[in-house]
Amino acid sequence: xxxxxxxxxxxxxxxxxxxxxxxxxxxxxxxxxxxxxxxxxxxxxxxxxxxxxxxxxxxxxxxxxxxxxxxxxxxxxxxxxxxxxxxxxxxxxxxxxxxxxxxxxxx
Length: 107
Hints:
Blueprint: H1 8-34, H2 37-45, H3 47-80, H4 93-105
């Protein structure tokens, strides 16, 4: 039997994620429940509403695709590039950049 130590970070992250999800879903559920079923059905069949939903989904898809195509190779490059700092030889450029940001923010 493998014993795991309790991780506070996982608990806090899970709770914050659930709160964020509830913050997004609760108003949507409230709007659907407050609307009459007849009005909701006519809104779903409306051509402008359908076009708006299609446009939103298309824009979200392209934004996600561009982020993935540009972000994954960039993240790989930043994680694999070796640092020139002799005190931190195994860390990549992103760690150095974050360290520089925190040092300049303290001034």
